[in-house]
Write a structure and sequence with these properties.
- It is a single chain.
- A five-stranded antiparallel beta sheet has the order 5-6-10-11-12. It has a four-stranded mixed beta sheet with strand order 1-4-3-2, with helices on both faces.
- The longest helix is centred in the middle third of the chain and has 19 residues, at 204-222.
- It has two domains: 37-171; 191-267 and 284-373, no CATH class.
- The protein contains 13 helices and twelve strands.
- The chain is an alpha+beta fold.
- 37% of the residues lie in helices and 18% in strands.
Length: 374
Amino acid sequence: MSERINRHVSRLNRFLPFSAEHDQIYEEYQQTDDSLTIETSALRYLQAAVAGSARIIVLTGDAGHGKTYLCRRLIETHLGYSQDDARALINSSCDGETTIPPIVSHPAKPLRIFKDFSELQIPVAASRLEAALHDDAVSIVCANEGRLRAVLQSEQAGEGCHDIFSRFEQSFLDGLGEPGSEFTRIGFRNGAEFVDICEGRLDKPSEIRLKNRLFAGLHHMQGVQKGEGPTLFLVDPAFGRSSSDAAILADKIPGHRVQLLNLTSTWTHTDEQSKWSVTNSVDWLDRHIVLRVKSSDQKADTDFHADLMMLDCLLRAASGHVPSKFYEHDLRKVSAFLGTLAQTGSKLQEITVLLDGKTQAINIDGGVIQVADA
């Protein structure tokens, strides 16, 4: 029986970056009759910029992200070339030294394309970029961020390169909105609070509100049906995770015994040690905050270190749901921390049950069971 091969699967396989045979992942090696053409928002944005008043456009990204593809499509749509001709121009006329004119029947501004700064020596790239700023062509620069910074900050870089670098830096801040909203844009809704703790800017009312939310998250992770509040309830480890109906408590920790600290403030140094601490030798940046639970007998405190991902996990849990598979490692760390607190805590002197969000104490006196609100 002869082997049957699905031609479509074989074609798509050539786009996977797993061996040298997968040449289709690189725009320069693609063939017109075997390529994929996909309309994207990035292409539409680029077309509008070139047709508008843009003089120079910078495309950044790693190899395979689509910079060369966008340039080839721009040669087709803006200058009017066929796909075969555009591919030929990509490989022959995109070194930043040559301008590509439109075809006769397609009036448009010419393009000057720097296909890859990595193919040029840094002084050559800087001088060509400076020269490109003084003609009528629209310049398209393709480079990964590291190479781009090296060219724009080189000794050969002039005022034009310095202006591009300044605009490039500013582009990371444009449109971010209020301070801290940049974290929201990348998926961390509580990044601003994390930075405030790290930099010691969290005021007392904000700290109390954040602690109450953290308590709610820790309750959810234990299966406790308890919302935000000033007290952290710990389920007795002997009874495991609580059910949806009731939980037997090992301890109750009031909010005043819980602190939110930056990492460096928890390190103990003498004055002489502090002077020569590593935090003073570099531009130090805390990457963890510390949830410190002070012991009731003042003997030993229990610290829990949380990075931004961990804090996000805890505060997501406060809303009533946390993706257990995604945060599996973090959940194990939290469970170990809560177990340690329950074992080393003050220990309640009576059986305390959390039922429907209310605590009740159970006492047994001479065979008589008494239940009262705790």
